[in-house]
Amino acid sequence: MKLLVCAMEASSNVHLKELKKYLNDDVKLYGVFDKELGNPLYDLTALAIMGIVDALKKLRFFFKLRDELVKIAASCDKVLLMDSSGFNLPLAKKLRETYPNKEIIYYILPQAWAWKKGRVAKLEKYCSKLCSIIPFEGEMYSDKNKITYVGHPLLDEIHDFKEEISNTNKIAFMPGSRKTEITNLMPIFKELIKKIPNKEYILIIPAKFDDEYIKKIYGDISDFTISKNTHKTLKECEYAFICSGTATLEAALIGTPFTLSYIAKKFDYFIGRMFVKLNYVGLANIFFEKMGKTALHSEFIQETVTLDNLLNDYLNMDKKLFFENSRLLRNYLKNGSSQNVAKIIQN
Fold this sequence. Notes:
This protein is α/β, with parallel strands linked by helices.
């Protein structure tokens, strides 16, 4: 089988790597993905964009890429689109118009349940099968035969979960992966460790960051032990302070109590609040609300991200309750998604 793949995000390629383990040897990948998974049309580094200005500069390139992928699809049996809805939804439209009978599978769907609900109709129109990683996501779709909850990819990628509450004297700090997130949170984290003495403070840094970039963005981090292994470090730590994002769900699944904090640019936050109508930003809390339960962890956003708030949350959290709820969360998500997606592709 020839499978056209468009996986433009680093996270998508982590999921694709797990998925590939369940694909038969005769399934060959074509298109856009990490070069360690085969021979892509373009290396992912050529697709990295930051901000609107950069995106506009590369607009012509992305139109060219779309047309190239549509052309390659002619000789492929099926299409797999992963995340990146800004590019993949228009690509799905073009593919459907060009090849009305081509099977198009979308895995890691746009979060239409959070905002831009109009994407639901487009996904149903352009795609043949929709692989959902959010248990309640299917409620929004009218064609229940198209959408399937396949499980969550993090349950494929996290291999060790806590079996009991740990007191290891290690605390993890994850200030995010974007420059603004890091520069906003690091000063607070550096003050916070002064209030929590006699601990080992472990700073988890994205593996892609080199030493020069780390020195420039993080400043003096001599008081921290550096780690680039998120899952292993979260399991070893008794607590974590984490920027909003996938890492909060990773910690929740592993069973490591944490505090979520996030400071966005004021304009970005204002726009986000206009369009995203959710009570929580942390995925674990969103899931717990759907389960009819109270929030799993605290969330501090914008001006509420203060030294006192973070410290009080650390001192007062019911860690036993958190640990029990982390098990409920794993049961809610049920299983990993890779094997089920592989079955859908090869069916």
